[in-house]
Design goal:
24% strand, alpha/beta, Rossmann fold, binds S-adenosylmethionine, 263 residues, 7-stranded mixed β-sheet
Length: 263
Amino acid sequence: MTDLQPSTYTFGDNDLAAERLRLLAAAYEPTSRAFIGRLAREPPRVAIDLGCGLGYTTALLQAKTGAALTIGLDSSPRFLAHAWRRSPHAVAFAEHDVTRLPFPAPPADLIYGRFILTHLANAHATLERWADGMAPRGRLALEEVDTLAADDPTLTRYYALVEAMQAARGQRTYVGRDLCTLPASSSWRVERADDVPIALPAATAARLHALNLRTWRSDPFIAATVDAAELDDLGDALDDLVAGRRTAAPVRWRLAQVVLRRR
Ligand SMILES: C[S@@+](CC[C@H](N)C(=O)[O-])C[C@H]1O[C@@H](n2cnc3c(N)ncnc32)[C@H](O)[C@@H]1O
């Protein structure tokens, strides 16, 4: 896949996907709130939320930075319809493929994105392009996956399949690991990079994954490489964790929180 092809979101935008994003927003709210809170020295004029989904991150960005205008961009009109319904004052949304520049927004002092680079093929080329949407010396704040780990074999298998499926699409599940060391030729320099633990009960993680599996099990790579019976078993094993018929140790996830400054 080249970075010029339209980007499709691996995890879909149906009702299950929306439900998963609600759960995801709840799981990550405390860490994202703290991260965004540390960014706001003075309110930006314009803040952009890349891949805003249902707008939870956009509302948080607005609330914690006090930006005069906060704009959420997403390629899914269905997610954006949800986002508009619950949008606070000084927040707007636009349908846009964030791999394409210019953004339908004024140059931003602060651009934020949570779990967006991981869904883009050729993430590094797109990262460089984002510098063009930024006001001079503006900052790009990203929260991306560094690690998804667990002791339970069902969860481990799930993570391996997600990583393989994303790789087949030219995407990198653990793109957060790449962000703390950028080449000297990059338009960005790393201002701050942290790697924070996210401890969730296995049942909560399994609930997120069970919703997701129902969406991506029909992905062409998965359909061609994984037996349908194995996917059924995986779904059942995740449901068992959700329902408490089986227990497992909390998952060990790590989130990269990175602040980049435009050179
Ligand atoms: C995992 S969700 C994250 C949503 C939100 N940032 C959050 O953390 O709650 C990824 C979002 O990126 C959007 N997305 C994926 N590829 C995109 C693209 N090329 N342009 C714009 N949005 C995209 C999806 O529609 C989805 O809403």
